[in-house]
Amino acid sequence: MSQGCSRQLALLLAAVAAAAPAIAAEPIKIGVPIAQSPPGSVVQGVQVKDGLEIVKDMINKQGGLLGQPIALLYEDDQGVPEKGRAAVEKLITRDKVVAIVGPHQSSNCLAGIEVAKRYDIPYVNTNCWSDDVRKKGYKQVFNPANYNSRVAFAMAETLAALGVKRVVAFCENTDYGIGQAKAVAEALKKKAPQVEYRYETLDRASKDFTPAVLPLRSNPPDAVLMMMLPPAAYIAMNQLYEQGVAPSDKTWLYDGAGLGDYPDFWQNVKEAGKNLVEFGLYHPDMGIPKLGKEVGEAYQKKTNNAPNRLIYQAADSLLVIAEAIKQSKGTKADAMIQALETMTFSGVRGSFKFSLEPGVTYHQWVEIPYVTYQFTEVGQPVSKTTLVQAPNQPLAVDKLKKAK
Predict the structure, then answer these.
(1) Less Cβ crowding at N or C end of the chain, within 10 Å?
(2) Beta bridge partners of 33
(3) Contact status, residue 76 vs residue 36, Cβ threshold 8 Å
C-alpha cells in the first residue's frame, strides 16, 4: 500500500474521532442480514461476520466515525429470499440502520435490494455473484464483490486453454448457480465455441446427487464444473469421486464457487478434493495491501484459521461504508450514495472506483482480482497449492496435473 493510501486509511479509521467521545455517543447502526442457520450457507455467514467484526473493532478503537462508534445489527436470513427480504425490512424500519452490508447469497440479495430501494438505503453486496443484482441498476446497491460474468470469463479461458471438448456443469437451483451456468455458456461461445457444454440444475437441499452423477460414468466428459455452495457442493463432489467420475485421468473437476479456502473444506471432501482446479479470489501469493495483511493477521489470531476471500470481502464492505460516511460527513442516504459513486476507495484488496456503466458492471468493482489454482494433495492449504493464474501472472495450464 502506498504512503498516500496509508494516510487515507489512517484518516478513515480515525474519522473525526475528536468531535465527541465515542463511548458516550449514539452508535451508527449498520444492518447485517446473513445466513446463521440452514438452508443458507452458514459457513459463509460465519466468515462474513468475522470479517465485519474485525474491521468494526479496528474503527471503534480509533474513535469510531464522526465521533460515534459503529454498531453491527445482525439478522438471520437463512439463505431464503423471503427471510432475506424480511430481515432487511426489520433492520431498516425497526432498527433504523443507516446502511446494509454483509449479504452473501444471490437470491437473498435480489430480494433484499428491493427493500433497500424502496427505503432509499445504501446496500453493499458482500458476496452475491448474480449478474442480475447489477442489471437492476438500483442507485442504492454497490458491489465490491465478485460477479458471475467475471467467473465465466476466467473459467472459459481456462477450459479453452485445456483444449477440452465436452463439459458438464452441476449448478445449484438458485440465482447464483443458474446464473453462473448460463454465463459460462455465453463465455464459451465467445472463447471456445467448439466446446460441447451443458449444465444440470441440482436441488441445493438434496443429499443425494447420484442420479445426476451415474450417467457420467459410462461416458465421462472432459471436465465437470461445480457451481454449488456447501453443504450440497461437498456432497456432490464426494459422489463424483466415489463413482470414479472426477477428478480422474479423464475428467477435470473445476470449482467456480471458490470453495477451496473455506475452513471446513478438507474435513468435508478429503480425497475428492485432490487435483481439484479452483477459481478463487484470494491466494497468499497474489499480493494484497498492508491493511489486508493486518486484517488477515487479526483473523488468524482470532480463529486459528488462514484468512480467505470472504474475510477480505466483508472487511471492504464495512470500510467502503465507513469511507462514504466520512466523506459525506453524516449518514444521510443521498449523500452517502453520492460519495460511493464518486470516491476512489482503497481497501484491504486494492483500490477501485465503482463503475457507473449500465448493465452487469453497474456500481461494480469491474476488474476485481481473481486467481486459478490447483490442489495436488489431500489437506493441502491454499498457500501450498499450485498457482496457475493470478493478477500479475498469466494463465499457465501446463502446471495443472491430471488425477492418476
Answers:
(1) C
(2) 75
(3) yes
